[in-house]
Design goal:
The structure is a homodimer of 234-residue chains. Chain A contains 11 helices and no strands. By secondary structure, chain A is mainly α. Chain A has 2 domains: 70 residues, Homeodomain-like (Arc Repressor Mutant, subunit A, Orthogonal Bundle); 144 residues, Tetracycline Repressor, domain 2, CATH 1.10.357.10. In chain A, helix 2 crosses helix 3 and helix 8 packs antiparallel against helix 11. Chain A is flat, with a radius of gyration of 22 Å. The two termini of chain A are 44 Å apart. Chains A and B meet through helix 7, helix 8, helix 9, helix 10 and helix 11 of A and helix 7, helix 8, helix 9, helix 10 and helix 11 of B. The structure holds a DNA duplex (30 and 30 nucleotides).
Chain lengths: 234, 234
DNA sequence: TACTAAGTGGGTACAGTGTTCCCAAGACGG
DNA sequence: CCGTCTTGGGAACACTGTACCCACTTAGTA
């Protein structure tokens, strides 16, 4: 356990002698780069080049690549303005969920970079505060409120991850979903359909309609909220 | 769009001339390594050493590290035996959810490695078939069944990710959750509590009880299932 | 049985990665 | 105006995935 443990956020407040750059600039550059070209393009060298500085100079502003990512995560969560809670907890939690999803979709690297230990940055805290306010509309029991908020957050996280990794697959394989399906269809026909080993998978492939991601997300969120309503009404 | 596109699973069936190793052995070694030392220790060189072979020899069995991961994902999903669906869809979906969670907890790298395009390996297909059977107990509409299954899967994925990344944080920082809390408590006191900017976060920190991961997971799953029940009963 | 072709194991090498170590140059307090 | 501290940033290191190549073993054929 390191004794010289200092949080990023305290160090941010300290002002420094001179600055050719600022942490904010670096973070902004990194976000722009990751948005445009994905996580794999986010190297310290690329960030430095994009920021017009030397690679190792970045380490004057940021101790780690991990720390840079932590700053990026918080910065991005500050893009959204949260309204004052309406008091209708279902509507408020929907705002939270939609907002989280929108942010993660806008910054495709965010979902995979989210860690559990709550980011203690100002923006993440503001979001957490609004989310807790929304959940607080459903119950006064703060333990229950934070449990049900966790449920919503977990669902949103999982749903967005599924949505994003489909996108990511399209990018990495260079095939759209339909192209991929037709490419694997001979294998699918032989192994899944003709073998008869996976009857419901087969039926699913043939008969199920594809919901759009919006529909799938809304359906799942509706389930979660309905379940919460029931567990709160007790 | 590559024309020479061949699935891993077809290539696996082809038998080869001689084999000092087998794909199965390599995959098993890789899984053991990743389980024990985490994703960051999973390098081709380590796998090769552990398997007692040269690094580049692995590429005779596996075209990519990504492909190795895909094989690992499927292999791990074959550890669990699925029962025959009981017909009680709530119980069956609970079995699915608990099983997915248990597998992901046993292999901490799995959750972050899951991709959306369904793994077409035999084990993943068997799991999907059971899961669809479970969901099919709730409704005959296959589109609805697969939507609600997706909701469960998304929730489970998100919940386990939260659970795992907490563990991962403990490993990477070398501090337990409690140690970390007391380490950041001065900052928390100043920025969150005393500033008064985040009243519900403050209240949460002081008053909320910590649910165990089992409790949190069960609570969330209960919400999801209750919501599904309502959306199906319509 | 001898020869050829193909497939296998694996060393070397390369382009990149995050990060540490240094040093020169500039900014600040006295 | 000087000495000290802080910056910017180049060189270098340990490490990654993997393409290329070569010697060698095997399988099939003459």
């Amino acid at each position: 356990m390191p004794q010289d443990f200092t949080l990023v956020w305290t160090r941010l407040a300290e002002q420094r002698r001179r600055q050719a750059l600022s942490v904010e600039q670096i973070v902004a550059v990194a976000i722009r780069l990751a948005d445009a070209e994905g996580t794999q393009a986010l190297t310290m060298r690329r960030v430095a080049t994009e920021a017009g500085t030397g690679t190792t100079s970045l380490y004057r502003y940021v101790t780690n690549k991990d720390e840079l990512l932590e700053l990026m995560v918080d910065a991005v969560q500050g893009e959204r303005e949260w309204p004052t809670p309406s008091g209708d907890w279902r509507a408020d939690l929907t705002v939270v969920a939609d907002g989280m999803r929108a942010t993660m979709l806008r910054h495709p690297w965010l979902a995979t970079e989210l860690r559990s230990r709550p980011t203690l940055g100002p923006n993440a805290l503001r979001q957490a505060d609004f989310a807790l306010a929304a959940a607080g509309g459903a119950t006064d029991d703060i333990t229950l409120a934070s449990a049900l908020l966790g449920t919503v957050a977990n669902y949103v996280h999982g749903a967005v991850l599924a949505e994003l990794s489909e996108r990511e697959d399209v990018r990495s394989t260079g095939m759209t979903q339909d192209e991929w399906r037709s490419a694997v269809s001979p294998y699918v026909r032989e192994v899944i359909i003709d073998s008869g080993n996976y009857p419901r998978v087969a039926r699913r492939i043939f008969e199920a309609d594809d919901l759009s991601h919006d529909q799938q997300f809304a359906f799942g969120l509706e389930c979660v909220l309905a379940g919460i309503e029931k567990s709160v009404a007790r």
